[in-house]
Amino acid sequence: MNTLINNNNEFNKKKLVFIMGAIGTGNSRLFVDLATHFRGEIINSDKMQVNKGLLIVTNKITHAEKQGVRHYLIGEIEPDSNFTVENFCLKFNIYIETILKAQCVPIIVGGSNSYIEKLVEDHVLMFKHKYDGCFIWIDVEQSVLNRRVDTRVYERVNAGLVDEVRKIFIPDADYTKGIRLSIGVPEMAKYLRVEKNIDGDDESKKMILQASISSIKRNTCKLICNKLDKIQRLVNEKMWSVHHIIATDVFKEDRIEVVDEAWRNTVVQPCLDIVERFLKK
């Protein structure tokens, strides 16, 4: 079923859908589900995924996972650039009009809530005057997310994370801006700096590599905490109206068929209903 966006409400506001949530909550799967159902197009708001390169480290959505849905701001920015929140807002203004002219539903996704907050709260941009936003927060219990982080980090290491970082590794590079800020790069750079000085001592290399992997896990868990705190602040202090979908039970099972059914019932169907009502109201 395709539902075209209706922008002719009484305030003539343009309707946008925002998907929020921490790492490991299934956001990318959800926004593709919504986009294929409602004829949507995606604007990425993840600070690291806007940059070119490091597909494994930044966990960019693959061509197959996109299922033909058009994405903006994925891998568009030069990796050494300092892409600011102001830059994001300028890009957003361009892409949002492109999507609306195509009579598609704009879906803004990604983990960088500072980008989204600036976009919505900035008086100069007049977001609240021009747009009507539907905010959906996919939430998973922290302990479950932490376990998923362990699995996801090892999957990325096995997929080639170390070699991917090695290709861009420069010992004295600036790791405070651009794509080198991505979790996985500074931690692995520490390993790569000492790797060259340990000749033939494979056991020492393994220990140092394991320490770097542990740092990636630890910093990812900290990032998850920070993201959840920011969303809570937007809800409790900024008084944003956010649809809160709790998906913890989806990720407690390991069997794929059980997970898929739980995902459809617990996450996808409620979100389809929320967006359907939002677009038609």
TrEMBL record:
GO terms for molecular function: ATP binding; tRNA dimethylallyltransferase activity. The keyword 4Fe-4S does not apply. Coiled coil: none annotated. GO terms for biological process: cytokinin biosynthetic process; tRNA modification. Keywords: ATP-binding, Cytokinin biosynthesis, Nucleotide-binding, Transferase. InterPro entries: Dimethylallyltransferase, P-loop_NTPase. GO terms for cellular component: mitochondrion. This is ATP binding protein.
